[in-house]
Amino acid sequence: MTAARAPWRRTAAVDVVVVGGGHSGLAMSRALSQRSIDHVVLERGEVGHAWRSERWDSLRLLTPNWMSRLPGHDYDGTDPDGYMGAAEVAALLSAYAAKFAAPVLTHTRVLRVEPALEGYRVITDRGDWDCRALVLAGGASSVPVVPRVAAALPAGVPQWTTRDYRRPEQLDAGGVLVVGASATGVQLAQEIHASGRPVTLAVGEHVRMPRTYRGRDIQWWLHAAGVLDQRIEEVDDPARARRVPSPQLVGTPERATLDLNALRQQGVTLVGRLAGVRDGRALFSGSLRNVCALADLKMNRLLDLIDDWAQGTGIAADAPPQRFEPTALDAPPRLRSELGREIRTIVWATGLQPDYSWLDLPVFDRRGELKHERGVVAAPGVVVLGLPFLRRRKSSFIHGAEDDVRELVVEVAAQLERTARVQVGLALSEA
């Protein structure tokens, strides 16, 4: 859809437009400033908008505070092993933008990006920008992913996504079905159950992971052993690697492990993947046991890798290896529930995805996904940041922005150099 443009709309020009004022966009802004590249960062709200207004109240990062660092800025608080809440992340980003005087234009919504004579025109609700290079830094968590089965649910069963949900008190009394058992799903299942509402958790593919291992946070081991630095070209199936769910973790002062065993002991009912809706009933897959067995197997393989690395380096020699009880399940698991009676509310914890609906460029494949090679988009001078496993396993983490930005800013600068040579050539030919 073409955005309406009034004849009085002003158009400004910069070398680079960065769309998104989150951690990735701000990190790129600093890198561009260090190269004296003229640019602007367009942010639809305040800096850190999504953390301020699109997260549930109790959310905390899955990574400890010492990992919340950005280029030129390390964590300097008093609780390095704690976990930031959403408001703290927003404050971190605001302080970072101010520290480096990032040229952020807030409350500016991008309506459309289209090709222009020497690059791209970025049309916003506050005027237009012409640029020779474009950075897509809106992040991977913009639009809720809601399965098609949602359309078959009875109208009298309220549905919530993680963009809408803030606290249990918003939900109707009665049973709640949380769909999805990655980090968000297990956290919301625990929180809603603690409010006194019976909770059923529909479990599909998931990544089981202990909060602590051999005396340290599991993220410390993943960081130290180089797991988070693994590059996308080192994996056999990049597309699948980018779809791996977030691990079942929660950030709490006591560093508690939150897995399916913990939820079952607290009284949450575990069922298989939501497979369909028929005759007013939610139908669940019978593959729950196999799915959980696979998650247990993969967790133990990860712990084996950590043990091998620890033994090879001599780190934590005084903390012996650990193994955890397999996921325990009721036999047989429930295969259906009555909607409107047993289940009064649905919460979709089925993930979020990027929103590029405003990007009017030929850069999408037939599935509608952005075509890129390790962040270099299939259009001259366009790069993307902040997506899962973009270049490294840590790419979507706050601290993962530094390495990706350091490499992708080179791509941006190279495009600016190419267009500058073309412009010089045209000027000479006309002389």
State the CATH superfamily name of the largest domain: FAD/NAD(P)-binding domain
Poorly predicted runs are: 1-8
Number of domains: 2
Shape: globular
Q: Any idea what the CATH architecture of the largest domain is?
A: 3-Layer(bba) Sandwich
Counted by DSSP, the helix tally is 9
Please give the radius of gyration in angstroms. Answer: 23 Å
Distance, first to last CA: 41 Å
CATH class of the largest domain: Alpha Beta
| Biggest pleated sheet | 5 strands, parallel
What structural class is derived from the secondary structure elements? alpha/beta
Topology, element by element:
Layout (H helix, E strand, L loop, with lengths): L10 E3 L2 E4 L3 H12 L4 E4 L6 H5 L32 H14 L4 E2 L4 E7 L2 E6 L2 E5 L1 E4 L6 E2 L14 E3 L14 E4 L3 H12 L4 E5 L3 E2 L3 E2 L2 E2 H7 L13 H4 L5 E2 L11 H7 L2 E4 L1 E5 L2 E4 L3 H26 L22 E3 L6 E4 L3 E2 L18 E2 L2 E2 L4 E3 L16 H30 L1
Parallel strand pairs: 1-7, 2-3, 2-8, 3-4, 8-25, 10-21, 11-12, 11-21, 12-17, 13-16
Antiparallel strand pairs: 5-6, 6-7, 9-22, 14-15, 18-19, 19-20, 23-24
Helix pairs in contact: 1-9
Question: Top keywords for this entry?
Answer:
alpha/beta, FAD/NAD(P)-binding domain, five-stranded parallel β-sheet, 25 strands, globular, disordered N terminus
Question: How does this model look, in words?
Answer:
With 431 residues, the protein is α/β, with parallel strands linked by helices. It is 27% helix and 20% strand. The protein folds into 2 domains: 11-142 and 354-430, 3-Layer(bba) Sandwich (FAD/NAD(P)-binding domain); 144-351, no CATH class. The chain contains 9 helices and 25 strands. The longest helix is centred in the C-terminal third of the chain and has 30 residues, at 401-430.
